[in-house]
């Protein structure tokens, strides 16, 4: 059964990495990383919902969501944070000598990554602010991806832009490889932004670390999402009960 209308990936990170490696030279597919913010956005954004439904993999990015998913028997064995997955896939790219296209991010981040992963060929395209509302800029971004074949495509333009763009790439059917819609992951990987220590992550408090690190950008969003997620969870619980009652009827 779907939870929050999402058909979550039900393997662990090791299984996911193995699956992605098997698809890097096939027609383009992409990974979306569900967190509290995405669950809230999906409530009223049908275009974003469609992009989610089209994704090859919908992973639980959030340790905060994991207790809820367990409560609702979603069958998800573990959270797979997008930042952690990106590190693992970049390690694979280094071992295999892949080409990696980055959409978004900045030149200084790419310079650090090029030094850290010398066996990787990096391609970089950074569309201008507000590009998603400009058809010409969207087309330029799509053409760059399609004309520069890569095994891995890392989307660093934020949600829901990166998911919408990934769906466009998949729909056009001209690109290959696997896209990771992992937002700020490269900022963490390059050291431009410090990720929470592992003990903080294991306590499911990475959200608090991020608020303290970037209060102006994140405090308002986290407050809004925190208030919105509770009624969504309560509605899901009601739906689960109705489903169980219908299933148990003789």
Automatic annotation (TrEMBL):
Keyword entries, A-Z: Glycosyltransferase, Transferase
Protein name per Swiss-Prot or TrEMBL: N-acetyl-mannosamine transferase
Pfam family, one: Glyco_tran_WecG
Organism: Pseudomonas rhizosphaerae
GO terms of molecular function: hexosyltransferase activity
């Amino acid at each position: 059964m779907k939870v929050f209308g999402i058909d979550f990936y039900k393997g662990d990170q090791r299984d996911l990495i193995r699956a992605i490696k098997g698809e890097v030279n096939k027609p383009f597919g992409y990974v979306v990383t569900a967190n509290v913010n995405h669950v809230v956005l999906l409530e009223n954004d049908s275009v974003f919902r469609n992009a989610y439904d089209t994704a090859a993999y919908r992973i639980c990015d959030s340790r905060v969501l994991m207790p809820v998913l367990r409560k609702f028997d979603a069958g998800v064995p573990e959270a797979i944070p997008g930042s952690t997955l990106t590190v693992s896939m970049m390690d694979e790219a280094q071992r295999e000598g892949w080409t990696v296209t980055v959409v978004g991010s900045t030149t200084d981040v790419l310079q650090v990554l090029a030094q850290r992963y010398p066996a990787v060929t990096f391609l970089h395209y950074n569309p201008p602010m507000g590009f998603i509302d400009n058809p010409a800029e969207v087309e330029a971004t799509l053409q760059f991806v399609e004309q520069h074949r890569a095994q891995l495509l890392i989307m660093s333009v934020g949600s829901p832009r990166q998911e919408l763009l990934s769906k466009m790439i998949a729909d056009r059917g001209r690109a290959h490889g696997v896209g990771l819609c992992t937002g700020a992951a490269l900022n963490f990987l390059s050291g431009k932004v410090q990720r929470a220590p592992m003990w903080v992550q294991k306590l499911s408090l990475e959200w608090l670390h991020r608020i303290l690190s970037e209060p102006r950008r994140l405090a308002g969003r986290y407050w809004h999402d925190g208030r919105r997620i509770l009624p969504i969870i309560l509605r899901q619980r009601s739906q689960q009960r109705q489903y169980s009652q219908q299933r148990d009827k003789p």
